[in-house]
Structures are given as structure tokens and as C-alpha cells.
Amino acid sequence: MAQKPQTLAEKIISGRAGKDVYAGDITLVDVDVTAVQDGTGPLAVQQLEKMNLVQAANPDRTVLFIDHAAPSPQKDLSNAHVILRTFSKKTGAHLSEAGEGVCHQRLVETYVNPGDVLIGADSHTCTSGALGAFSTGMGSTDVAVGIALGKTWFRVPETFLVNVTGAFPKGVYAKDLILHLIGLIGADGATYKALEFRGETVEKMTMSQRFTLANMAVEAGAKAGLFETDATTKAYLEERGRGDKFKEIKVDDGAVYERVIDIDVSKLEPTISKPHTVDNTVTVGEVAGTKIDQVFIGTCTNGRIDDLEIAAKILDGKVRHPDTRLIIVPASKEIYLQAVQKGYIETFIKAGAIIMAPGCGPCVGVHEGALADGEACLATQNRNFQGRMGNTEGFIYLGSPAVAAATAIAGVIADPREVI
Question: Which parts of the sequence belong to the Aconitase/3-isopropylmalate dehydratase large subunit alpha/beta/alpha domain (predicted)?
Fold first, then answer.
């Protein structure tokens, strides 16, 4: 038992540091899972080669993902993929090939458990915090050292408690909640803090909804987005064949928070982030009617089966607007298969959608789905920075799968509450 009450961040990091630590402490910790992707992984491997450390301390939980440019659109990226495949063979590290899915979705599906420390060379590594793990993004060199030595260091972050109450109204989802929160505190409002999500509403959330919240914690500058573990966590792990990895992780009474943010979701409306920052948020009514050239449903934020279900129900029997392209990318191969079995893929194809292989798709902008000059996209991804989808002259609006589906039909930003 800790000497004084601990937040989730303090508790999880203490467990891997082997001693009690608190906000502001700098400590060395054991790393359970390390991850790189095809954009950041080659640099990590090259750094290990320079340091004469081509090794993996824990190869079974060192994962190399080919997901950002998958399949590869050009020879330079193909060569980068070879670097990861070769490192995997040399060290025994796991390789998640093109088509298997986005790193963050694959990590929660297969590799991460409550109480783990995960470091990944990708900013949205914080997604796994929904499983009660301290999961955070780092630079390629830091992750490379973690791969080779199985250790890293942290400054233990202070924590903001996000207390969520109320019932979601029709047409309002976890994506609207996290966009509202980021708009409320700003894109740098939680820099190097942990966001701890709790409250009666959080207790009722599915794992998928929790993943959406944790995924976008970094868009407020946060180091991690964290959830207590509960029966929902346990059921998810059991479904994944990891029920024996469940452990209860709860906040101590009296834990100290730097800030407490209360949100009643019953007062929320469908929320949109306008170009070119995630915190540039408005309610859907303020931008309804804005012409949209492309709709993109997928990514590590909203590419799970319940996201696809929401979109499929709206699109069922409808057809996309003739002037609006519709791209759909399941977040993993498993989700793709589920969507096929449930008939969602057929619904999307009949609605005029383009279905792409599981992966990041157009989100990063290195291959299919890039915008033309002046075009606007409504996407379910997590970022809308200038140039994010391959063109600095493009415009990206962020919204929920429901907003995206309604918009695809209308050809302009549309309120999903009118079609649900």
C-alpha cells in the first residue's frame, strides 16, 4: 500500500518502478510493451544499429507495425518496410504486416494488459490507457532504447480528473465528448498531464468508447488517458483470451488532482473540429451546410465495429452524394471480418463507398485518399492539422461516425440527429 493516496498514473508507474512514486518524481521503470510503426520504426532500428544494440529485451511484446503506408505506395516506403521485417527476423520481435490493422487497435486487441507500461513511437499510443495501462508516445530513439533494454524513464505526470455524468442524447457519442473536452481546455491545456476519466457515465461505457477517449487525450497535450479497470475491462480481456491478465486498478480515496473537470454529457450536441486545429470546436449546427468533398470513416479513433455499425445503420438503403467521395477503413483485420459477417461492408459498397485495407488509410496522407487543393474532408480521425491528409491546401473537419455518415449522404456537413 502506498504511503499516501495515488492517482492512476502514480499507481501504475509505481508498480513498474518497484517503489512508490508521485507527480513530479523522475523514475526508471520496466517496460512491458514497446511498439513502432513504419513511419517511426526504421529510425528506431537505425539508432539501435548505431548503438550496437540490435536486440529486443522482450521480443514477444515488441511489436513492429506496417500500417501507415500499407500497402506501400512507393519504393522508399517499401524499403522502410524491409527494415522492420529484417529487424523482426533478427530479434524475434513481432511483425504486424500490412493489412492487419492500425497499431493502436492491434495493441489493445492482442498485446496490452492492465498495469502494463507501453511506450510507442506514435503519439496515439495513449489509446491503450483505456485498459488501465500507462501508455504513452515517445520519440524513436527513446523507444529504441526501451526495445533493447526493457526500461525507460518518466517524470510522473500530474493528473486532471475528468468526471463525466449524464446519459448521451440521441446522436451524441464518445467522439463528441472528447472533442468537447479538447475545445474546453485547449490543444495544449493538459500538456504532460494524465487525463483520468471517471464518473457514472464512464462506468457504463463500452471498451470501444473508452478507446476513443484515451486515443485523443494527446490532442489536449496529455501524456496519457487513463481508466480504472472494471467488469467491462475484464469481459473485454476474456473475449480476447487474456482473462487471466485482468487486475483491478482503482484510484485511492484522497488522491490529489491538479484540476477537476466536470462534464454532463446530457447537455452535449454533435461536435465538430474545424480546420486546422482539434480545439477549434463548434456544435454541428454552426457548420451545417458546409460543402464536403470527401468523407472518411475509420482510423484508430473510430474504426471499430460499433463505429462501423453506427455508420452502416445511417447509410443502409442510402447512397452517398454524387459530389462526395466516401472512404471506409476498418481499424483491423478482425474488425473487417466482423463487418463482412454483419453485412456492413455490403451496405457501404451499395452506398457508394470505397473500402480500403485495414490500416491508417488517408489519415496521415502518405497514400490513397489525399485531398486536392481547396477540398474539404469530414473525417472520424483524431487530427485535422494543415497538410494532415496529404495537402496543405486541404481542409479537414473532425466528427463522429454518425456525423460522417449523415454528411456522406447530404454532401454537406449534416446533423445525424435528423436521420437516426
Answer: 23-286, 287-411
